[in-house]
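Board work, copied verbatim: Diguanylate cyclase/phosphodiesterase with extracellular sensor
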Amino acid sequence: SRGAEGARTILFEARMDRELRLEAAMEADVKAAVAGEAMVPWFQPVVETATGVIFGVEMLARWPREGGEIVGPGEFIPLVERLGLMNELTLSLMRQAFRSARDWPRDIHLGVNFSASQLKEGTLSPRLLSLLQEEDFDPHRLEVEVTEDALLNYEGAAMNALDTLRRLGASLVIDDFGMGYSSFSQLRNLAFDRLKIDRSFVQGMRGELDGRIVDAMIGLASGLGIDVVAEGVEEEWMARLLIEKGCRFAQGFHFARPMPADRLARLLAGGRTL
Ligand code: C2E
Ligand code: CA
Ligand code: CA
Ligand code: CA
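↓ predict structure ↓
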């Protein structure tokens, strides 16, 4: 049995070795992909719930690989973070998005996700400012999406980065609202423009508790004079119930899935209503 255990150990070590090599290869791939603009922005429409009119789009990172596979952000963003390349990636995606936006109606808003680390560093905003100028993108169309937890961990620095973007005219959006830790003082101090109700509440909203939570979120937003976006609207009944509840904006597979730039341009060329 000691022999079997020895064999198991060797097998285990071989597997570890292979995994480490795979990870190193993946790291090299990710580095090259970020540097070579191989990662691209996809876009998901955000609509006015009652009319289906497209208000804006959220930019979502995708990595098309040889062979046609499209890799989602869950698989590479943690690695990009670990390599310290999040700002590089975001700026590369935004540059591509700003160029695509030349084909869109001028008032389509663009939502961009910023992670906690990007708020902490505070080095993003000067580079973003020059990018906006270089690409001639109106900052008033920019919506900066941050989660509650990103704000919690890096309060001081986050405020500065967000204030800068704010001064440029960008909107601030709380992402995944209800899933993290937020306080009323944050809502007050940061003067958010919008909050995005996390899809778990939206999808559970036929239940009494989630229904009341969604009502409370919409009530809170309206009391603060800000707008709400419901995320993860997958079914007709969700859209209908959200209209009843007075939720102004919605996003989800029921309206449109995330799509590449050329498909979005064709969609917008055909009209603003989904
Ligand atoms: P998120 O910011 O909450 O983005 C919404 C996610 O929900 C997207 O997943 C979108 O495809 C998905 N979604 C949209 N509608 C529906 C629906 O009706 N049902 C369901 N089940 N899902 C829906 P995706 O594209 O896989 O992105 C996952 C997360 O990765 C994002 O969550 C965001 O946190 C992060 N992410 C994506 N792109 C970027 C980026 O460029 N920078 C940063 N920092 N994070 C990004
Ligand atoms: Ca988001
Ligand atoms: Ca979200
Ligand atoms: Ca999320």
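The pocket of calcium ion (ligand 4) is lined by residues 176 (CB under 6 Å).
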